[in-house]
Specification:
The complex is a heterodimer.
Chain A lengths: L19 H5 L27 E6 L1 E2 L10 E5 L24 E5 L7 E6 L15 E7 L7 E7 L3 H5 L17 E5 L2 E3 L2 E2 L9 E2 L1
Parallel strand pairs in A: 1-9, 2-10, 7-8
Antiparallel strand pairs in A: 1-5, 3-4, 3-6, 6-7, 8-9
Chain B lengths: L32 H4 L6 E2 L4 H4 L31 E10 L9 E5 L25 E5 L5 E7 L4 E3 L5 E3 L2 E7 L7 E7 L17 H5 L2 E2 L12 E4 L2 E3 L15
Parallel strand pairs in B: 2-11, 2-12, 9-10
Antiparallel strand pairs in B: 2-5, 3-4, 3-8, 6-7, 8-9
Bound molecules: fe (iii) ion.
Chain lengths: 204, 249
């Protein structure tokens, strides 16, 4: 025998199931009066610093069918590159920016949509700058454990080319799956759960 | 916002997730996973500042009835129908430290096994006094509690005759976005747990047992509600003992 590390095991994940919207966005699915508003619907207010953008997209299964029962959460730095979190010790984040958003995929067309700001750059662990990015977390019926990925920005080609994470993607064609395409102030990123266009998902 | 002043800030990266403890992405007995499971290997990333940070939810956002599913949707003076229960426990990390200020959100079917959702077609009755959602935030020792009715089991279209055991869905926010977790709680003694294709996605029996809440007789309130205890463990952080640093940094 040796000494015990006294570590616990992480609670196993289970699928969010078909009714995740009841729990996390009840107003969205017409359960009204329990909460005033659904959490994560407003990331910005009129005083938030930075360039206003929208991030939108859809989630496709391996049969190219759009998921209409999924949910996406995003987490990102503010315009100066600081996170609104007690673990952020490099500086103080914009108090008018939550950095966190939550959006169900629409029951009609499966679109998710966030009104946010373009994040500043944050450093990788070795001090190199990462390209600006938004972290995504995706859950749905049929997904046993939430999927992490990132959205980078199509108009940041130089920063993307030097990004420490994107640089590690061995199959270069797959880098495109993490790049949100800009049109005006709207960035679009489609998530493909499997198939030839499968998104690069992260084990963080 | 929970008080952080007497705590050292949490800046360590998280322990690598033990993927063998969780269900794999592809679990054919749970048919929906077949087309919704990534097939390529995940790209591993030792957490950066983007993932070791996470949003904070203040106790002030929680309404008085948010942790009372018996009453938070009921008409004044009425209550949801079903077996009255209390679910309580602690949120800890893998280092067995309490996770204070964790946001827990939960949802469930009513006592007859029916969800309040327009896509739900099970013939069991809707309870006009039951919405099916609630939330709470853990205290400084990681404790939480809520009151509800015990959800009923329900059939679902997977195999010809598949039923979900009674369960409550949980969503948990710790302190880092990499800790984000959604899971389900089951009830001690339910034989249906071992027949469920969604439960069986988890390969290790001990991991499944981690999702089964025992009856907590000691916390049962006489003449009112039985109690079940459900502890939740989120990923733990490495101590920042000898983190890699650039020279002179
Ligand atoms: Fe369920």
């Amino acid at each position: 025998m040796v000494q015990d590390l006294h570590r616990l095991k992480e609670t196993p994940s289970q699928t969010a199931g078909p009714y995740v919207h009841i729990g996390l966005t009840p107003n969205f699915c017409d359960i009204r009066g329990v909460y005033e508003t659904d959490l994560g619907t407003a990331m910005v207010n009129e005083r938030t610093l930075g360039e206003r953008i929208s991030l939108r997209g859809r989630i496709f299964d391996g049969g190219e069918t759009v998921l209409r029962d999924g949910m996406v959460e995003i987490w990102q730095a503010d315009a100066a590159g600081f996170h609104n979190s007690p673990s952020e010790l490099r500086g103080t984040a914009d108090p008018n920016f939550t950095g966190w958003g939550r959006c169900p995929t629409s029951g009609e067309d499966g679109i998710f949509h966030f009104d946010t700001i373009k994040p500043g750059r944050v450093p990788y662990k070795d001090g190199r700058w990462m390209a600006p990015h938004i972290t995504l977390w995706i859950v749905a019926r049929g997904i046993n454990i939430g999927l992490h990925t990132r959205a980078y920005f199509s108009d940041e080609a130089d920063a993307n080319a030097a990004d420490p994470l994107l640089s590690r993607i061995e199959h270069r064609a797959r880098v495109e799956t993490m790049i949100a395409q800009r049109e005006g102030n709207i960035y679009t990123i489609d998530i493909h759960l499997q198939g030839p266009k499968e998104t690069v998902f992260l084990d963080i | 916002m929970p008080t952080q002043s007497n705590q050292r800030p949490e800046t360590g990266a998280f322990f690598a997730r033990d993927r063998a403890w969780h269900a794999p992405a592809l679990t054919p007995e749970y048919k929906t996973s077949i087309l919704r499971s990534p097939q390529r290997p995940l790209l591993s990333l030792d957490g950066t500042i983007s993932e070791i940070t996470g949003p904070v939810f203040g106790h002030s956002m929680i309404g008085e009835l948010d942790n009372d599913l018996i009453h938070n949707y009921a008409r004044s003076g009425e209550s949801a129908i079903g077996e009255r229960i209390i679910v309580h426990g602690r949120v800890l990390d893998e280092n067995a430290r309490p996770v204070r200020g964790a946001l827990l959100e939960f949802w469930q079917a009513n006592a007859g096994g029916r969800y309040r959702h327009k896509k739900e077609t099970y013939l069991a009755a809707i309870d006009p006094n039951f919405g099916g959602c609630g939330r709470t935030i853990t205290d400084d020792e990681g404790h939480y509690a809520f009151r509800t009715v015990k959800p009923g089991p329900y059939p679902w279209p997977n195999g010809v005759n598949d039923w979900r055991p009674a369960h409550i869905h949980f969503s948990v926010f710790g302190h880092g976005f990499a800790q984000r977790l959604i899971t389900q709680m089951y009830f001690e003694g339910d034989p249906m747990i071992w027949k469920c294709p969604i439960v069986q996605t988890i390969p290790d029996r001990a991991a499944i047992e981690q999702l089964i809440a025992p009856l907590d007789w000691g916390q049962t309130i006489p003449m009112d509600a039985r109690a079940f205890k459900f502890d939740i463990v989120l990923r733990g952080r490495r101590s920042t003992l000898f983190e890699n640093r650039l020279e002179g940094n």
